[in-house]
Protein: 3-oxoacid CoA-transferase subunit A
Amino acid sequence: MRNRIYDTPAAALDGLLFDGMTIMSGGFGLSGNPESLIPQIRASGVTGLTVISNNAGADGFGLWMLLESRQIAKMIASYVGENKLFEQQYLSGELALELTPQGTLAERIRAGGAGIPAFYTKTGVGTVVAEGKPVETFDGEEYVRETWLRADLSIVKAWRADPAGNLMFRKTARNFNPNMATAGRVTVAEVEEIVPAGSLDPDCIHTPGIYVDRIVLSTVNEKRIEKLTLREGEEA
Structure:
């Protein structure tokens, strides 16, 4: 069995990065972000990136780091609110944006991993989302055709991995990560724990190792909370 385990995030990305490439980056808000791999992409200096992700991080964290360094040329995302740097770059024309409804984004990524070039959905019919896309009628209802998404590189964050690359994700951090792992030409997974071969329950594996090319232990596990909401205590 070939060795998939790398010593550092930099080593795990070695030879994979180039200008103008497309990268899928897991995460939802700040949950499940590849916290250790993103800084190494920044350090590499690659530019002109197209990045596919649900959102673009938050101030000082996640994909925000690549926006701040002006390495992202285009974002394909579903949520871009509350990121002032994203807003500034988009409004100034520095950053191209393909805004995609969240469920459609997830399905486009899943389709890319499954080898399905296109599918139809009602979401976005009659809106700017459907502009320039074929619309067809099924059972008297209009549906817009969406195409798959694939990437040169997928970076994901998992909870556990075994040496074969089988991955387990934990709770909300599962989000877009499993689908993205299947849709990259190369997939690099940073994980919190690498366990011995055979120790993962096969029924609890979220991503089979056949989709994972490289594994590295996370060096950053901040798990920031984007918005902390506390319920006021009740009077005695």
